[in-house]
Specification:
Blueprint lengths: L2 H11 L6 E5 L7 H16 L6 E6 L10 E6 L3 H13 L4 E6 L12 H7 L4 E5 L8 H13 L2 E4 L2 H9 L8 E3 L12 H7 L7 E5 L8 H14 L4 E5 L4 H7 L2 H12 L6 E4 L5 H10 L2 E4 L10 H8 L3 E4 L3 H6 L6 E2 L5 H12 L2 H15 L4 H17 L8 H8 L2
Parallel strand pairs: 1-2, 1-4, 2-3, 4-5, 5-6, 6-7, 8-9, 8-11, 9-10, 11-12, 12-13
Helix pairs in contact: 2-16, 3-4, 7-11, 8-14, 12-15, 16-17
């Protein structure tokens, strides 16, 4: 089939409804992947309204009241549920299955309860890999390779993660696909208005968000505050998010209490505000719209993706980050500020120096916002829908790579 015929076939498929079953954690579970899946399915439903998403939700230890789109449930540690889910999928009218993969969501050793399910389904599979470790142990490597082998396409959210799929996990290059983490469609500026709506008087406002855990490096940001507030007395840090449910279950609020004690010891209590809850997207958008700086000081330089950093780009903020994988990639080209890990003074210097350069700060924010426009949910949803259609249509004669076909479909 010629390139022209491939393109005509791809465009024809764009008119056909696509019935997708998603396997994932799902709202109201307080989990980043649950929220990601909800946002993704909303975006795809808007483009594909005649075949709305169906969800197979993976449960932890809590029984949730799920919305109508959840059609089947898997108890994380119940092996029988996985085989029952495979039967449900095979009996359904779905055209394709989308797996949202994270090791901690699924039962067994490194989530290997999932493997018999994938071996049993007779529908094409597209897998999103939320964590792609550059140096996996032997069993994680085995699990990932098995999932990749079963998948018609494997999606990574950064180029470095896509390369790891190929080089570390042996994924054929033609089915390793890069689609960025989706983000809301923010308007640029209007910071003062959003601060006023939230009754925030910080100037500048510094923001940390997401599930609170030691992996976020929040201590480093707190340690930077004495120098920041000395130079800029109006600065205030907002830490928005609840403690990670796993930490809360095992340790209670021990970690958050340690952060509060750290704030008191450094005598910056008036310059720190803890918002101890899991905000819905609308509330979180208001905090991102109001802030001047968004900071991710992850201590693990292998951190593959950060959904919140993607939000910081989309909102057009000054993004300050340690050089973990995702930050190095998306902040390259003077889109944000990379600081030395474990160095609170570097964070302080980045805030102070940027705040003193009004035009430079505006230019930096414009570059971040422009880059974030590429990964708004409507754009990301369109890419996924195109990918699903291409995978479904491959048996109809398409013999090139998914990457080439996506490029054709997007012109």
């Amino acid at each position: 089939m010629s390139i022209g015929q491939n393109l005509v076939a791809a465009l024809a498929r764009k008119q056909q409804p696509v019935k997708v079953i998603y396997i994932s954690s799902y709202i109201p579970r307080k989990c980043g992947i649950a929220t990601f899946t909800k946002d993704l399915t909303i975006a795809i439903n808007n483009l594909n309204p005649h075949a709305l998403a169906e969800i197979i939700a993976v449960l932890d230890d809590i029984e949730y009241e799920y919305p109508w789109e959840v059609k089947f449930r898997i108890g994380q540690h119940n092996a029988h549920d996985y085989s029952a889910a495979a039967h449900y999928i095979n009996q359904s009218s779905a055209d394709i299955v989308n797996l949202q993969h994270e090791f901690g969501i699924f039962g067994g050793v490194n989530g290997d309860y999932l493997l018999p399910l994938l071996d049993s389904i007779d529908k094409p599979l597209v897998t999103n890999f939320h964590t792609i470790l550059p140096e996996p142990d032997e069993h994680k490597l085995y699990v990932m390779k098995r999932i990749i082998e079963r998948s018609a396409a494997a999606v990574a959210m950064t180029e470095s993660s896509r390369k790891a799929l190929i080089e570390v996990y042996g994924c054929p290059e033609e089915k390793a696909i890069l689609i960025g983490h989706g983000v809301p469609d923010f308007t640029f500026n209007q910071i003062a208005m959003h601060k006023q709506r939230l009754h925030i008087k910080a100037n500048p406002m510094l923001l940390v968000s997401g599930l609170i855990s030691p992996s976020k490096g929040i201590e480093q940001i707190i340690d930077a505050l004495p120098a920041v507030t000395k130079a800029i007395p109006g600065a205030k840090l907002y830490i928005v998010g609840q403690t990670h449910p796993h930490i809360l279950k095992n340790e209670g609020e021990k970690y958050r209490d340690s952060l509060i004690e750290r704030v008191k010891k450094l005598r910056v209590s008036r310059s720190v505000k803890f918002i101890n809850r899991y905000p819905e997207d609308d509330e979180l958008r208001r905090y991102f719209s109001a802030t001047d700086f968004f900071i991710t000081a992850y201590p693990n330089m292998q951190q593959p993706t950060s959904g919140m950093l993607a939000w910081g780009l989309a909102a057009g903020k000054i993004n300050i980050a340690t050089p973990y994988h995702h930050a190095r990639e998306v902040l390259a080209g003077d889109v944000g500020i990379i600081v030395e890990p474990g160095n609170p003074q570097a964070i302080a210097d980045a805030i102070i120096n940027t705040w003193q350069d009004e035009q430079g700060m505006l230019d930096l924010r414009k570059r971040a916002y422009a880059k974030g426009r590429q990964i708004t949910w409507p754009n990301v949803g369109s890419k996924y829908l195109d990918l699903f259609r291409l995978v479904i249509g491959q048996t109809g004669g398409y013999d090139g790579s998914y990457t080439d076909a996506l490029a054709l479909a997007h012109g």
